[in-house]
Every structure is written in C-alpha cells, then in structure tokens.
Amino acid sequence: MTTQGFSPEFELIARHFTRPAANAVLGVGDDAALITITNGMDLAVSTDTMVSGTHFFSDVNPENLGHKALAVNLSDMAAMGALPYWTVLALTLPNVDHGWLAAFAKGFFDLAEEFNVSLVGGDTTRGPLSLTVTIMGEVPAGAALRRGGARVGNDVWVSGNIGDAALAVAHRHGKVVLEEADYHEAVMRLYEPTPRVALGQALRGLATAAIDVSDGLLADLTHICRLSGVGATVELERVPVSGIGAKHLGTEAGRTAIVAGGDDYELCFTANPNSRESIDDLTNMLGIPLTRIGQIKRGKGVSLVGADGKAVKVDGRGYDHFQPQS
Ligand code: ADP
Ligand code: MG
After folding, report:
1. Residue 4's CB: how many other CB atoms inside 10 A?
2. pLDDT in tens, 111-146
3. Helix (H, G, I), strand (E, B) or coil at 193
4. Of the ligands numbered here, which is closest to the C-alpha atom of 112?
5. I need a labelling partner for 175 at 20 to 30 A (CA). Which of 76, 115, 204, 252 fits?
6. CA 218, CA 210: separation in Å to the nearest integer?
7. What is the DSSP letter of 26?
8. What are the angstrom distances between the C-alpha of 288 and each of 59, 76, 80, 160?
9. Distances (CA, A) of 11 to 91, 99, 198
C-alpha cells in the first residue's frame, strides 16, 4: 500500500485495522459506526484501558497484547451474561512500527474471529503506549448478571483455577520463585486469558450475581458483597489452583498472589444452593471446572478461612485488608 495522498494515520488504520464488520451496518471508515440492536435486548457496554508499565510489562509480545486487550473486554461481557458483538479500539502509540502493529492486530483479530466480534471503529494517536478497547454486546432485557444480586445463604463459585497469572507477576517482581517451565506456563495465563463468554451466557437465570476476576479473587468478591449489602467467607482449601498454584499455596507470598492477585479473568459468581446440580451440569456441558469456594453471609467484607474456620492471613495484614473502607 502506498502512503501517497494518505496520511500515515490513515494508512495505519487501512493496513492493520480495517476488516469487514460482519455484525455492523457500517464499520471502520466513516465518522461513526452504525449498528442495529436486536429487539428485546439490552445493550451492554464496557471499556478497559491498558497502560504500559501499569497493566503490562513494556517488553510484552505485541500479539499477546492484542489478545489480552480484547480478552479483558470479552471477559466483562461474560461477567454480565452478555453476548459480545462490536468493539472499538483507541490506540496511543509512541511511534509507527508496522511489524509491531501487524503482530498486535493478529492477536486482536484472531480472538475477535473466535468470538465472532467485529472491530467497528477506533482512534489512533501518538503518545506513550496505551490501548483502550470498548466492547458492546447484547443481553436479553432484564436478564444481565449484576454484582448486586447476592443473597445471604448463597454459595460462592469460581470457574477454572485461580492464581497462575498473579504468580507470574509475583515471580517477575521477585516475590515468589517459579521454576522456569512453570513461569512460561503461568505467564501465558497472564498474557492470553480465556474469557468465559459461554459460561456467562449459561449462568443467566442461575447466578444471582457475577463478576470477572481481574483485580483478585477476594477483592472482586468484595465488590459483589458491597453492591449486594452482604458479606462472604471463602475457604482457602476449596479455592481451585493449577499444579503450579498447588506448589505455592504453602507460602504466604504464594497464597497472597493466588487469592489476592488478579488477571485470572475467571468468573466468580453466587447462586442459590438449590442450583448446585444445574451448575455442576455446566461443568460437563462446557468443559470448565466450576468450584464452590464459600458462602454469602450477613455483614460486610470477605473473610478467608482455613478448614478449621479460622481466618487465614494473606499479605501480612489478614483478611481485614478486604473489608470495605467504610
Ligand atoms: P475522526 O477524525 O472522525 O475521529 P479518524 O481519522 O480518527 O476519524 O478515524 C477514521 C476512521 O477510522 C473512523 O471510522 C475510526 O472509527 C477508524 N479508526 C481510527 N483508528 C482506529 C483503530 N485503531 N482501529 C479501528 N478503527 C480505527
Ligand atoms: Mg479520531
């Protein structure tokens, strides 16, 4: 492609970010995209920004970054029980590096295709590397999974296993030491999380509240508790971990990474105990382990307890760290 007659910005967009937008009336190229919403559906909208040094290491592989920028947004749709269709990408780049952009676009579009999501627009500016993805999806009116629906006596569940991504970060920060092979496996969980979109859909009508685990299991469950006006206990022994996680549960730093570290993008949700069988069925239907890790209680905040019911310390400050501020 020639840049003659076109600004470098236009060429960049044409070369890397213009693909047919199957789900849209009008995609990239005009002043705005046009989309049609299905009757009887609510539009679910979410946005996430990732800043170099804050949300990813500056040496991140651009293909991993493209995947992650979209994956964290798909995960927000999953946590609402919404089906994602449309996405918008705002890119701030320090310089134009076509090799980097091609790899980033590959990571982004490979995942977009897997989930049948169209990139319908965006913005491109120069500055310190930062990416903002906005995602839109549909959910039957009134059926979205919200954070505020947890009730006393509900079970607390989590999908998949928790902690590998945070263990990789803790390793990079010298707080835990992972074996080399374990680090390589764990860091892929950090860079290429699997958004639980099908699970979110399946949980409509079953989960009373849901959130995706981005800030950390205990912190994210605390968000559910705050908005639902309840408390929760989580039993450490029940928290599902990978083979890597199992090696680090015994140390306080490892434990802290697992229950308080983030970036897993699993779903944490609450449900009435009479939904246990239906939820177990989902494990087989979707091939995703779903584990009951605790209970919703009266009160405030989240307590992490051992098998003996006593509070387990994480981060040297104990579970109080996860009590709401006021
Ligand atoms: P405007 O000046 O109206 O903001 P732009 O020149 O920024 O338009 O963008 C031109 C078109 O390219 C628009 O349709 C916009 O949505 C799209 N676009 C810009 N940057 C990106 C990007 N990084 N990814 C996808 N689409 C983009
Ligand atoms: Mg613009």
Report:
1. 6
2. 999 999 999 999 999 999 999 999 999 999 999 999
3. coil
4. 1
5. 76
6. 13
7. B
8. 31, 18, 18, 6
9. 14, 14, 36
